[in-house]
């Protein structure tokens, strides 16, 4: 995984780009920025979850 500060800077960068998209004529660019922010957040949560012995995320493990 990446260091927390590295992830935070990516979040900030993506979010800022999305905000600029909203202010500019291309409103859709802003929406894309929000989407990548959401995807990064999901990936971050999945990466920080404890893993089961087989290496998969615990939440998806059949044994629970």
Explained architecture:
The chain has 64 residues and is mainly alpha-helical. The chain has one domain. Helix content is 66%, strand content 0%. It contains two helices and no strands. The chain has helices spanning 4-23, 27-48. Helix 1 packs antiparallel against helix 2 (27-48). The longest helix is centred in the middle third of the chain and has 22 residues, at 27-48.
What kind of sheet is the major sheet?
none
Our count of domains comes out at 1
Please provide the count of β strands: 0
Cα distance spanning the termini: 23 Å
Structural class: mainly alpha
How much strand content do the residues show? under 5%
The count of helical stretches stands at 2
Mean pLDDT: 64
Unreliable runs: none
Assembly annotation? single chain
- Please trace the helix and strand order, writing H or E for each element: HH
Helix content: 55-70%
**Rg over alpha carbons:** 16 Å
User: What best-fitting shape do the alpha-carbon axes yield?
Assistant: flat
Summarize, please.
The chain is mostly helical and 64 residues long. The chain is built from 2 helices and no strands.
Observed structural traits:
64 residues
Write the layout of secondary structure elements.
Layout (H helix, E strand, L loop, with lengths): L3 H20 L3 H22 L16
Helix pairs in contact: 1-2
């Amino acid at each position: 995984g990446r260091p927390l500060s590295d992830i935070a800077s990516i979040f900030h960068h993506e979010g800022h780009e999305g905000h600029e998209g909203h202010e500019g004529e291309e409103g859709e660019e802003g929406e894309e920025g929000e989407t990548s922010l959401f995807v990064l957040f999901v990936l971050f949560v999945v990466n920080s979850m404890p893993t089961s012995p087989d290496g998969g995320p615990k939440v998806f493990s059949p044994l629970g």
